[in-house]
Amino acid sequence: MTTTGRWRVRSDPRAGRPDGPDAGSLPRLRELDLRDLGVHDPVPVPPVERDADHRIEAAVGGDDPVVVVAAPRLSGGTLALARAARLLLSDHHVVRPDPAALGGSAPLSGPADPALVDALRRRPADGLVIWLDGIGPALLAALLVARPPEGARVFATVDEALLHPDVTRVAPGPGVTLIRLGPELSRAEAARAGTRSLGGAVDLAPARALLLGRPGPAGRLARPSRRASRPSLAPARAAVLRAAVDWARLGVPHALPTPLLARLALAYAREMPDDPPAVDDLTRAVEDLVGTSSGGRGVTRPLRRLRLPDGVHHVPDPLLTVAADRLGRDGWTPPERLGEVVGDLLGTAADRADRRTVGVLAVVRGFDDLAAALLRPPPTPDGPTDLAPTEDYRLGVSSLQAGRAAEARRWFAAVLTATPDDGSWRELRARAAFWLGLDRDADPADRRGHLELVVRDGPPRDASDAALLLAGLERDAGRFDAQRGCLRAAVTAARAAADAGREAEATLDLAHLDRRSGRADDARTGYDRVLTLVGPDEPAGLAAGRALAELDDAEPEDGPEAFVPAPLPEQRGGPTGPPLPRSGAGPSTPGGSEDRPTVPPPARPLP
């Protein structure tokens, strides 16, 4: 059933709507505190005024039945929408269904929250507001094309990350207003707010303590087990919450019953430094978290259990997901088991869109290994199309490290396709091209073009490696004049990188080529240079010493005329473009620079 049909069925006057404006026990907006609408403590007084407040007020006071405010978590989106609703629609009745109950595998098309069903059936004459705070990707897609019945309006808030073009592909339909708030305060907003920062006043320490398995002021959760002989359940609770939080952050559109949650939590527990808890401890931790309520503000109920038609769902407190996002890479990396479970659940052709959504959200959250396993790289039709070039590069590195070389090549090719060759993306393009240039099975012309790009735009050490690889291609093609030019470029780049070992390697190859071509004097000069660079005890120095002895013993020969090396692209000067992401790996760089990710030297080509 369509979303529109769902609204109409539940709001059909023939379904038993009573006469008159009886709204039962539904409160009016003016009777609710801002906290009741999802605004976290402490509520700022006076509230931070955002530049978009006037647009939100205009939408709330307008005629569109659906208003969605998208903003990063704890950045004032719920506060702005709640203030506008209470100000302009104070007499309207409000129903607050659980968004998790509406945004599962069948949003708004299966049995909905009973309170919502009853409210739509009654539909008070002075207006009904359906309030949804923190909706998921499936419910967002449904609301953007929804048409609530006359007299009912939907106000919703959503994490801005879900508006990624590869996550939410539908545009707002007629009667839907979508307003976005930026993640940072503008200069005018900061001036009005004084020294306050977005979300900085909300205390996330209790949520972090739960996720990290530390004792904390969270009611019964902070106390040890009832039996002194039992170990603390804190690590088990942390593993359970991490699994549930990642399931929610990735928007996995499948139920998370207790057995599956416990099995996933076991994989998370094995990644923790302490002894992993047993499965029985994890199952007990699930029940303990579901039955816990601190009775105060903040993380009031760490885990909620929802029994829906498609199974039992476990939904973490929203503050836990915020705390996990704030921890970032200082928190944890999802275990491989999570990717296996999600891949199995979303393995059919009918689940391709959901699989892409989960994979792209994994990129947004920084879970590159999980994303690379779930996403099909371009140009596959169901692959993502709107990832940033840096994200394509990160996924290529993750695929390469996982042994999926064919996928890695397609991600690196997507980097080159998505970036202009004008120097603005110089370093990123050079690193992607380097990995493509290592592919021995690629077309020689394509491989040569990729390596030439590295010689021109890559850092000196990478340019030296690429020039050496180019020299091998030219030698195999019988183009010895071009081979000589490549070796000279390798020597120059290695010298610029202050890498004596690489310079010696390139100089030795060049000296060997000079010797074979009859240029004995140039060869002798090259061998002497090798000995100066690395000494006689290194492998290159030993080879240079033997070659010099052989030259001294050999009779002079007439050689061919001097080569005229084919020109190679010179190193491009100027800015290097956007910085590479620190999380990705790339070709090694000189001096162990902290500004560039490092991996072992690219001695092994792509299979």
From TrEMBL:
Residues 9-20 have a biased composition (Basic and acidic residues). InterPro entries: TPR-like_helical_dom_sf. Residues 1-29, 552-607 are annotated as: Disordered. It comes from Actinomycetospora corticicola. Residues 598-607 have a biased composition (Pro residues). This is Tetratricopeptide (TPR) repeat protein. SUPFAM superfamilies: TPR-like. It comes from the Bacteria.
